[in-house]
Design a protein that fits this description.
alpha+beta, Rieske Iron-sulfur Protein, Naphthalene 1,2-dioxygenase Alpha Subunit, Chain A, domain 1, 2 domains, 6-stranded antiparallel sheet, 18 strands, 18% helix, binds FE2/S2 (inorganic) cluster, binds fe (ii) ion
């Protein structure tokens, strides 16, 4: 349970709020490079941390991220002409480059230097392996991009989908670090043709959790009884400010899975789902398995899973099964096949997360021992936000991109072993991709 004040602190993302300022200390994944395919192509609307923004790829290929409204009299730069290394407002022709400088002001006398006094809000962007990152913080020279393995591998070794969530980012992310829900929400039932008894997550549905703070976030171990003599440890990762990695990693799955829960505003989240293989490209069959029922489908299918794209921010990533149609829940499926009658793991998550309301009122919750990762992460966020505000201290991970070189994992351990799961899993948790 949280106080009303802490709940507000945690969930608000605009500039000037504690978490809004904290989030602005980090690089944020903004777009897939393929969403801005052409130089001088059409600009796109994006929304990040409550700000309405426009992004475009200029003549030289550089990505710009600027305020929506022209600083002259406010026309939207979404309609701008993307030409000759800048975006020109269609109202009176003022033109801006990716740094936000006004480089042309054709409706003022030639001798005027008014354009030197006008500056448009602009944020730095960097591109790596198919992802465009944005930095909305105060540093002129921000640190390197975080060395997350899924963005260090070549593009044929990673598969990324996004989906637009209609709720606050914190309750979305908390679903990503609460792994005890997998034995319920994602459970296949008798007719699904999957033998639940083969999965330890389905056999032992009351895991014991151990959590530890690290130099990038929080390491989470979930211990389940595997058989008479052994425990299994499902090891997941939370990385500041909003990344999670699914337990098991490459040890239990053909690919490592994870999420980035990126706040668009207080009530909307762009959820990134990533699967990656550190050593080799995915096969066609593996791509299919990521989103085709009845496999373990954490991705929403790119074909058929999304509504026709609109020009709104995030408008290409609205799922066909969504809050407005109750995710087309199928009670026949729910009776015999799946614990929740929604045929996709990602959408099952989205369903419960959005069902809590746009911003869940955490004064009403009752946390148990299975929620220990959530409790620790909330402490970390609130402490880091306070230390930033009161002492100007950079939050965990924001200045140490190399600390992100980790993976989730899984191990089996003898029940009478005296060794710590943390020590035993050390090598398995280290990312190798450079
Ligand atoms: S409003 Fe953009 S140039 Fe006038
Ligand atoms: Fe889930």
């Amino acid at each position: 349970m949280l106080s009303k004040t802490d709940n507000e602190r945690l969930t608000q993302v605009s500039a000037g709020t504690p978490m809004g300022d904290l989030l602005r200390q980090y690089w944020l994944p903004m777009l897939l490079s393929e969403e801005l395919p052409e130089r001088d192509g059409p600009p796109l609307r994006v929304k990040m941390l409550g700000e309405n923004l426009i992004t475009f790829r200029d003549t030289s290929g550089k990505v710009g991220l600027i305020a929506n409204n022209c600083p002259h009299r406010g026309a939207s730069l979404f309609f701008g002409r993307n030409e000759e290394d800048g975006l020109r407002c269609v109202y009176h022709g003022w033109k801006f480059d990716t740094s936000g400088a006004c480089v042309d002001m054709p409706n003022e006398p030639a001798e005027s230097n008014f354009k030197a006094k006008v500056h448009l809000t602009a944020y730095q962007c960097r591109e790596r392996n198919g992802v465009v990152w944005a930095y909305m913080g105060p540093e002129e020279n921000p640190p390197e991009l975080p060395a997350l393995e899924w963005n260090m591998v070549p593009q044929d070794q990673v598969y990324i989908t996004k989906r637009l969530g209609q709720c606050n980012w914190v309750q979305s992310l908390e679903g990503g670090i609460d792994t005890s829900h997998s034995g319920f929400l994602h459970r296949p039932l008798a007719k699904a043709g999957m033998d639940s008894s083969l999965s330890v997550v389905q056999r032992d549905r009351a895991p014991r959790f151990e959590v530890m703070e690290t130099d990038y976030g929080v390491l989470v171990g979930a211990r389940r009884s595997y058989d008479e003599t052994r425990y299994s440890w499902g090891i997941s990762q939370f990385l500041m400010p909003f990344y999670s990695m699914i337990p098991g990693g490459l040890v239990w799955s053909p690919a490592i899975g994870g999420h980035a829960w990126v706040p668009m505003d207080d009530e909307t989240t762009m959820t990134w789902t990533v699967s990656w293989h550190p050593d080799r490209p995915f096969t066609e069959e593996e791509y299919q398995r990521m989103h085709v029922w009845p496999n373990y489908d954490i991705h929403v299918g790119r074909v058929g899973g999304f509504l026709p794209a609109t020009s709104e921010a995030g408008g290409a990533w609205k799922t066909v099964l969504n809050k407005q149609n109750d995710y087309m829940i199928d009670y026949d499926l729910q009776r015999d096949y799946r614990f929740l009658g929604v045929p996709n793991i990602g959408l099952q998550d989205q369903c419960v997360q959005e069902s809590m309301g746009p911003i869940y009122d955490r004064t009403k919750e009752h946390l148990g021992s299975a929620d220990s990762a959530i409790i620790r992460v909330r402490h970390l966020w609130l402490r880091a936000a306070q230390a930033l505000r009161e002492q100007g201290l950079a939050p965990v991970g924001s200045q140490s991109p190399e600390s992100y070189r980790v993976r989730s994992s899984g191990i089996l351990q003898e029940k009478d072993s005296k060794e710590s799961w943390i020590e035993v899993s050390k090598d398995l948790r280290a990312a190798k991709a450079r």
